Amino acid sequence: MTDLASTDTPAAAVLTETDDSTARLHRNLFIAIAALLVIAPFVAYPVFVMKVLCFALFALAFNLLLGYGGLLSFGHAAYFGMASYVSAYTAKNWGLTPELAILLGTAVAALLGTVFGALAIRRQGIYFAMITLALAQMVFFFSLQTPRFTGGEDGIQAVPRGKLFGLISLADDRALYWLVAAIFMAGLLLIYRIIHSPFGQVCKAIRDNEPRAISLGYRANQYKLMVFVLSATLAGLAGATKAIVFQLASLTDVYWSMSGEVVLMTLVGGLGTVFGPIVGALVIVSMQNYLATLGAWVTVVQGVIFVLCVLLFREGIVGVIAKAIKKPL
Length: 329
Known about the structure:
Blueprint: H1 2-43, H2 46-66, H3 77-93, H4 98-120, H5 125-145, H6 147-150, E1 156-157, E2 163-164, E3 168-169, H7 173-195, H8 198-208, H9 210-215, H10 220-246, E4 248-249, H11 256-269, H12 276-290, H13 297-312, H14 316-325
Antiparallel strand pairs: 1-4, 2-3
Helix pairs in contact: 2-7, 2-10, 2-11, 2-12, 3-4, 3-5, 3-10, 4-5, 4-10, 7-10, 8-10, 11-12, 11-14
């Protein structure tokens, strides 16, 4: 007994020390992100930074489903785009304040995610991916065929930014920026909390070995549906916020290429890492913004980068850094 105790105690101490150093590293990274958010609007164009934050939140939501739930969805544009339409429509036609329009758009995305998730999780692997793609295409055709709600091919334009709580005007880019930064930070902290909660640990166990998780008594389908709905809700939050930022909701938001774009952001940044999707969104949005003069060749450049990442950096940018420093990021 004495020998066992003397062997286990140092091992437990090492594990505790490792966990503490990882938690300290993550805490410092959160502080660094918060500091960057404070500085960003003074050194960069606020609308560009807001676009990065909206897509980073979208990629974080997708990563929650694929990186930690093990479920590859090709239809996340449905929640992003439909929330965008609802937020834009209610702000423009009903005169809702921006926070209510965003909340309503997010609620619709959650409802849509519940219905689609209940249908999709009945299948696995490529069949799951194809069902999510088919359902998203149904949303696209609905958006195309209902111009009275979506504006058809023109989309919903000139969406008013309104006043936050009816008091603070968001017409100024920097005023709106602080709202977007707060939404992004809240979404990031929520996802971090989900990943490190007992619920997140069960999701990872189901991702790694679903039959074993079921044999331990976990109802895998219920957990998969919950993580699907959470991911769809956060994707909707990103889409609804984007509609207010750009004062526009269009068919591009619900098109299948948007679903592919968020996959690209996640893989480039680092699948299954907490901070990877943020870096991936920054890289892809920066390319779209600063290489716009190349026209359609931007997609070719994106394709080359994607191929290089898959061939040389399968873990993504943050994944490679995490591997080098031997700490989860």
